[in-house]
Design goal:
85 residues, alpha+beta, YefM-like fold
Length: 85
């Protein structure tokens, strides 16, 4: 579980927040009692970025994962109107 710091405390002790992120793991900073951001080490960030990149599907995989259409396409009559330029 990440340690929690209020925004004011994190601002006043930023070096301690950074050091804790490097040694102990992610550090959560709250604003008005709500989680606002998480400070992580560069090593953790890079690991997470690589995981995200590995999970991205290719364009072909993305398109093939969409819904399938097995029916016939209904043809619609469209009436065009004259446009004067």
């Amino acid at each position: 579980m990440a340690a929690k710091w209020s925004l004011q405390e994190a601002k006043n002790k930023f070096s301690a927040v950074v050091e804790a992120a490097r040694r102990k793991g992610p550090q959560t900073v709250t604003k008005r009692g709500q989680d606002a951001v998480v400070v992580v080490s560069a090593e953790d960030f890079e690991r997470l970025r690589k995981l995200e990149e590995e999970r991205k599907p290719s364009l072909a995989e993305f398109l093939l994962s969409g819904p399938r259409f097995d029916g016939e396409i209904e043809r619609m009559e469209v009436k065009l109107r004259d446009v004067k330029f």
